[in-house]
Amino acid sequence: MAGSRRTTREYVLGGLSIGLTIALCVLVIVYWQEFVKFSKYGYFGVFIVSFLAGVTVLVPVPSVFIVFTLGAVLNPVLVGLIAGAGEATGSMGVYLTGLSSARAFHALDHTVMAKFRAWIKSRGALSVFAMSAIFNPLFYPFTAIAGMMHFGWWRFFILCLAGKSLKNILVAAAGYYGFKMIIDLIGGQIPL
């Protein structure tokens, strides 16, 4: 009886997590212009847009353009760190979807899932860091699988935060130096 309740609870939590992810994806699509306006709020805007990019991985939220642009006008290291924190925090929703749906998805024997499982088992921390530090459309299923495998949530968050921060610092720095180079090429002066 206790096992039946636990299975039912996992299915309910998994369904709610997936439903919330889909609802957020729809909201981002419908209200995209409103979300773009958050970028005018500087660091807070970077966090909000990056959070949405982390939680709605299935919908391409172009947070990289906002990080790139704001890296040119704000402190690029802070922009990258805040964007990394936003994406890592948003990714925890995907992680929780996998964690709560472990039994539902465990029976699936897809090749990519099997490879991700093997990689997480053999290279746990390195795999999470590497997958979060690159631009990667497979990060959503990878994150869900890490949750399914009960990879420690705190450890996952820290590794994801480190990888996403590194990626976003590089994007923000590219914005800073790229923008400065363009201004120098056209002969203008801008106080950066």
What would you say this structure looks like, in words?
By secondary structure, this protein is mostly helical. It has one domain (2-185). Helices cover 80% and strands 0% of the residues. It contains nine helices and no strands. It has helices at 2-30, 32-36, 43-55, 63-73, 76-100, 102-106, 111-133, 139-148, 153-185. α4 packs across α9 (153-185). The longest helix has 33 residues, at 153-185. It starts with a helix and ends in a 7-residue tail after the last helix. The relative contact order is 0.15. The mean pLDDT is 77.
Summarize the structure.
This protein is an all-alpha fold and 192 residues long.
List keywords for this structure.
mainly alpha; 192 residues; 9 helices
SSE topology:
Elements: H1 2-30, H2 32-36, H3 43-55, H4 63-73, H5 76-100, H6 102-106, H7 111-133, H8 139-148, H9 153-185
Overall mean confidence score, pLDDT: 77
What overall geometry do the principal axes of the alpha carbons give? elongated
| Biggest sheet statistics | none
Number of helices: 9
Q: Give the strand tally.
A: 0
Q: What are the low-pLDDT stretches, counting only 5+ consecutive residues below 50?
A: none
Helix content: over 70%
Rg, nearest Å: 19 Å
Distance between the ends? 65 Å
Please state the structural category: mainly alpha
Indicate how many domains the architecture comprises.
1
Measured by DSSP, the beta-strand proportion falls in under 5%
Strand and helix order:
HHHHHHHHH
